[in-house]
Amino acid sequence: MIQLAIEIPYWGQSLLRVLGGLVAVLLPAGAIVYLFLFKMMSFMQSRLGPMEAGPYGSLQLVAEVGKWMQKEDLAPDAADKSIFKIAPIVVLLSTFLLVVVIPFGPDALFTDFEVGIFYALAVASISVLGILIAGWASASKYSLLGGLRAAGQLIAYELPMVLAVIGVVIQAGTMNLQQIVVAQNTGEIFGWGGIGNPYIFTQFIGFLIFMIAVQAELTQAPFDMPIAESELVSGYMTEYSGFRFLIFFIAEFATAGVFALLASVLFLGGWGIPFDWFGWTTVDSVDNWMNIGGPLIMFTKMLVLTFIIMWVRFSFPRFREDQLQTFAWKVLIPLALANTAVTAIFKVVF
Amino acid sequence: MPDKPKVPGLFKGLGVTLGILKDTVVDGANTVQYPHEKEAPPIRARGVIALHEGNCTACMLCARSCPDWCIYIEGHKQLAPPRRAGGKPRQVNHLDRFDIDYALCMYCGICVEVCPFDALFWSPEYEYSEPKIADLLHDKEKLGEWMETVPEAPELEAGAQKK
Amino acid sequence: MTSLSDRQQLSYIASQAADARLNVELETEGMTLNIGPQHPATHGTLRIICRLDGEQVIWAEPSAGYMHRGYEKLTEVRTFPQVTTLVNRIDWLGSFANEVPFILASEKLMEIEAPERAQVIRTILFELSRIANVSLFLGDLGVQMGAITPVFLAFRDREYVLNLIEGATGGRFHPNFDRIGGLKDDLPKGWIEETRQVMVKLRGFCDIIEDLLFGNEIFQSRMRGIGIIPADVAKDYGLSGANLRASGVDYDLRRDQDIAMAWDKADWKVWTHPDGDAWARCWVRLQETRESCKIVEQLLDQIPAGPIMTKVPRIIKVPEGEAWVSTENPLGEMGYYVVSKGDLGPFRVKIRSASFNNISIVPWALQGVYVPDIITILASLYFILGDIDR
In chain B, N or C terminus with fewer CB closer than 10 Å? Predict the structure, then answer.
């Protein structure tokens, strides 16, 4: 742990960790909602977006939160009440569990799992349960259709995501996310160590597959059949209102942020800048100011990746369900397997 | 038939949205921040109807030709002083009540068109919404106030014949 | 309720029974899904009752009438100028185009013709209405498919056309500008120059939509091969407009009919497509928008000088008789059958609106398609509720 001047008792550290987790999830969500959903989408549509709440509409999210919280908490009569109420929380839960394992700096992390990436991928699929529950418990045909579509789609796209990550793990030689960051920042590309070895260059196909799978996991266009606003009104979220809908809304963008953080750890070099530039060699020799700089660098990288996710979301129409599935099973998975094989060969040969 | 694009359509589409983003950042958006800025409607815009009471003779043509029957007119005949000294007093129509109910009005303009005495005019004024629907019944005085906002008729295009 | 036919009553009871079964026990075959009347995809209050097997439609039936305003009854107690006002509101996007066939039918009964200048300006405004209508269709097509950006671009560029119409007529959506014998007013100064500039912008819009939407591989895979309507089926069901031309039938009332409008003064082409699928219908409409820009630009150069209205009496009484005029409106073929008994107003007006016949093909077209394809087919058929229900 960091050597601080004062000794913080264990309960204080846990409290800091909890607060840090909340910030790590909600700050990206808020930033993404404002920057991309309100402003970037509007600018791409030749309009300005919210401008009234706060300077240039920066407090619009606060206004939205307030609005949703004061709405009536409806539930359909025929809905299975207890499951209906749990569903949004399950979706948000997976996001918090996921952020626990992401490193933000040489010492700024919550936990240091040896099988970090394995845990992350496992926990990312808990949100599928939440969506299925929401679709079924809503007792509405539209929600049911949305939930069933979500089940098929999200499970189908888990596989390419996992396979794309295997290439990274083979190259880094470890499943520990902190070590993956170190490996990227100390590595060299075919002998040239100028910018370290961010895996986006050597694992470009893996990066593409991962980003497409993330787009599908977040049910963003072109993979938003479960929501499919023009057909199913809101898919599995149709019957939710008030605070529960707010949780779904925040969860959608928080998950986008956290997946982007994960992608930047795996492919863009995480919190680090190439160690060569500062003369560091291992993670222990990194200066302490990187504990402040690391989160900022992660935030920037997350914004870049989320920009791409949102850009694609606002530009493309959506796939039909069977086209979605064909794409996942017949295109992405063979491609990911091929990528794994090639990476393995390269790792052994070079 | 559209031929196969050289650049995949997916990327062209991304390029289009990025281009619009750049245009909005550089040139500004195509929207107008109402109510801080307002666009001026064209001269002929049908915003509200104004009444020039002096010209009105309560002939009821406008009330009869309204498709919604939203004009309420009441008048009575009275004697006016003769035009020149030594003549007979003449009978004129005096307008008591002229109401237009804008909650019913379809903004079609038939009343303005059929008035034989040029007593009704269009004005492009549009900001007169009220919290109570009964306040949308504009009476004679209010219709007279709208006369100040009536613009001059625009010049016509080349080739038009003067009426 | 009493005037429902037996078949309608049976279908209503059947759909209620299907709903009841679903609520009582898990039924693995056949779920009745109600699309509408409140739904983001239908352009208004259209209800389509579908029986689904999983995600496939076994049986579908549109149930229109939620927006019935009783136009034909209303016209019985209105004078001719008042009917012109009302009729604007049938197909509210193609505003001016609704008035034209009615006025032409009345002029036919009066045996007068509008002067040249009025005919040319009428045609220009007609084509502007078509551009306004179909550009919204192109934007809305994106929303139905999931692309949320094109619709904002459509509204942005459509504003220019609406400003033009407002500058000439005074109303953006309901111009109420056509009169028996000509037009109400002449064009204001500077309108022709402004229209030329707007046509350039609209061509740019068509190019953007082609790049953003039509060129997109995802969009093409959603639209190609979906909802194929062969030419003979299209003719049997009475489709008209771009739906018919996209099935390969070369039929356009602007060219094939001799009425008092100025389409023959411009050099333009009728677009058809042999496929008859959803892609063809949307593509034909895109090309027609470009063609309309071309027509407007050519006609702007050919406005002759002269009066805007022939000599008609102040109070118009149309002589006795019956007349039918139909024109190629943005949605399809729209026609009016006007019966007059020599009064101030028509005795009876029968309105043949394009969308009513266009959605008659919905039960046939939706057999065996997936739920997302329902939206694709409905979007490509393009109807306006005011046009269906009148």
Answer: N
Mean pLDDT value across residues B147-155: 85
Q: What is the rounded CA–CA span in Å between residue C48 and residue C65?
A: 12
pLDDT above 50 for B2: no
Chains in touch with C (3+ beta-carbon pairs under 8 Å) read A, B
CA distance C312 to C111: 11
Restricting to B residues 5-44, those with a Cβ less than 8 Å away from any Cβ of A are 10, 13-14, 16-18, 20-21, 23-25, 29-31, 33
Q: Which fold has domain B48-149?
A: Alpha-Beta Plaits (3.30.70)
Q: Is C147 on the interface with A (CB under 8 A)?
A: yes
Instruction: Name which of B113, B132, B129 is nearest B121 in CA terms.
Output: B113
How many structural domains is chain A composed of? 1
Mutate to test the interface with B, among C162, C212, C271 (most CBs of B within 10 A): C212
User: Which residues numbered 263-292 in C keep a CB inside 8 Å of some CB on B?
Assistant: 283
pTM of the model: 0.86
The answer to whether A46 contacts chain B (CB < 8 Å) is yes
As for the ipTM of the complex, it is: 0.85
Nearest CA to CA, how far is A223 from chain C (Å)?
10
pLDDT tens digits for A269-313?
888 777 777 777 776 777 777 778 888 888 899 999 999 998 888
**C301: in domain:** yes
Single out the residue of C105, C128, C23, C48 nearest to residue C378, CA to CA: C48
> Is the dihedral angle over the CA atoms A190, A195, A201, A207 positive or is it negative?
positive
Number of Cβ within 10 Å of residue A332's Cβ equals 22
Inside any domain, residue C385: no
Q: Where does the pLDDT of residue B24 fall: very low under 50, low under 70, confident under 90, or very high at 90 and above?
A: confident
